[in-house]
């Protein structure tokens, strides 16, 4: 990333954004040929209750970008502390992401984490450009609740619920 972005100090911008705790998700899909794809995202949010819509942001430079743009469906797995190392692998380019973790397949063959804090299955509704990312808008078809607590990303590291911040 450049030191300056349109007159903005890029390092200061990244540091400011890091002060906002965000949930951590592993977003998955499969290609038409059945190959699983996924990425870690902390830019995830509810968009609408009626209709039920969520959004997640994907870097256009991600290895899995073409697979998600072509996908009809995707799954958002809300990460627990047990998935922290796995989330780091899914955030790394070139990593064999599905060699780790205990994924199962949903009815459509999409990878899910059965022990996630929640699993949200979506139909890809719209792809909206957003700078160096795209915003994937998904219509929620199913939401499963797990028993684990979610983990957050804060100041470049994982933050666990109940953990004090210094």
From TrEMBL:
Give GO terms for biological process: pyrimidine nucleobase catabolic process
Q: Which organism is it from?
A: Streptomyces melanosporofaciens
Pfam families, per database record: Flavin_Reduct (PF01613)
The UniProt entry, under SUPFAM superfamilies, shows:
FMN-binding split barrel
In which domain of life is the source organism classified?
A: Bacteria
- What region holds the Flavin reductase like domain? 17-160
Does this entry carry the keyword Protein transport?
no
The protein depicted here goes by the name Flavin reductase ActVB
Q: Which UniProt keywords apply?
A: Oxidoreductase
Q: State which residue ranges cross the membrane.
A: none
